[in-house]
Predict the structure.
Amino acid sequence: MTFFIFLLACAAAASTGIIFKPGAWYDALIKPSFTPPNWLFPVAWSLIYVLLAWAGYRLTLLPGSQEVLALWAAQIALNTLWTPVFFGAHRLFAGMVIIVLLWLTVAAMLVLAMRLDVITGLILLPYLAWLCVAAALNFSILRNNR
């Protein structure tokens, strides 16, 4: 049951992508050559959200995981916020600020999770890797579309 609560939180974050679609505005932006193909975004995020829910569930089973779970809550809030700010409001700089805060939160969560349970920490690695790509993409779009 606990896993499904985490999965529901992830689904809520994912729903912002349904509400605030990239659309013509995003298509018209100057994007870097390393921009992943459009089909990869929902595939990557679906996998990441399942892994994130699994990591959250595993953390609830570990004594002393309160700080990491607080970071889990903070990252899902920041994750949920980025899409409406970037795609909905078209605020590239604000999106960059949010994604930097998100990256820092997930990095701290991964380090603390790794101290409690290596497997849980490893489950979070794809998320941090994808955030590196997303942050670089956000930065490049910000720089090239002033």
The chain has six helices and no strands. The chain has a mean pLDDT of 97.
